[in-house]
Design brief:
81% of the residues lie in helices and 0% in strands. It is mainly alpha-helical and 203 residues long. The radius of gyration is 18 Å and the shape is globular. Bound molecules: protoporphyrin IX containing FE. The site of protoporphyrin IX containing FE has 22 residues, from helix 2, helix 3, helix 5 and helix 8.
Length: 203
């Protein structure tokens, strides 16, 4: 059900495209919709661990991987919309645009960081890298979240309410990690923390 739900935004875009429902500027609509869903899914991915620990619903780990892969999927659509539909693979035009709108470089960095995470999301890669290294690598998602919010904040011209809301959610999710990290360093593991072995086996 979650898998199908995550496909709804792209299905909706496809439906609208087929029925002339994307308005006067379809590229803008697709860029905004795919950008929004990439960010929503990055934040959803980041919210699974706190949710799983607080509610002790350990099966949620499977949802985390799926949400992360869907974030990558929508990020790829967002990126393709830009380089293909918007710029027709014209590198010169893209470089000119990046010079004019530096927020694109920030978005690109956020997207590039998602690539190794998507590639190493399988159980085989967890084994190959070792649980600890895998976890270290996957902390890059924090940086993706920060860059994604900066990307959005930077591109809006006047009304910053939406990026502010995303920034607030990201702030809460990252603060949770800081609190857990500080309490672990003080030698008082939070009571709800799942043993690492359980986390890795279930991932
Ligand atoms: C993880 C990666 C990324 C995330 C989370 C993200 C997120 C977003 C969001 C939330 C928006 C605004 C949507 C709205 O207004 O409702 C947006 C717009 C945009 N993004 Fe991204 N983005 C990412 C990567 C990229 C990349 C790689 C590019 C291009 C190389 C890019 C280019 C753009 C452009 C051109 C816009 C529209 C700007 C405008 O309206 O003037 N983004 N993005």
């Amino acid at each position: 059900m979650i898998f199908l739900a995550a496909l709804l935004p792209v299905a909706r875009l496809g439906w609208k495209a087929l029925h002339d429902g994307l308005g006067a500027n379809p590229i803008e609509v697709i860029t905004h919709s795919t950008g929004d869903w990439t960010l929503i899914l990055v934040l959803t991915t980041l919210s699974i661990t706190p949710l799983r620990r607080i509610t002790r619903q350990y099966w949620l780990i499977g949802v985390r991987r799926m949400a992360g892969l869907f974030a990558f999927f929508y990020g790829t659509l967002h990126f393709l919309t830009y380089i293909w539909l918007d710029k027709f693979f014209d590198v010169h035009e893209m470089l000119k645009d990046i010079g004019k709108r530096p927020f694109i470089t920030v978005g690109l960095s956020a997207f590039v960081l998602l690539v190794p995470l998507a590639l190493t999301s399988t159980a085989g890669w967890i084994r190959r890298l070792g649980g600890k290294n895998w976890q270290r690598l996957h902390r890059l998602i924090y940086l993706t979240g920060i860059l994604a919010v900066v990307h959005y904040w930077w591109l809006v011209k006047a009304d910053v309410r939406k990026p502010e809301e995303y920034g607030f959610v990201l702030g809460v999710l990252l603060s949770y990690r800081v609190v857990i990290w500080v309490s672990q360093r003080r030698g008082q593991p939070a009571r709800t923390v799942v043993p690492r072995t359980v986390e890795i086996t279930k991932a």
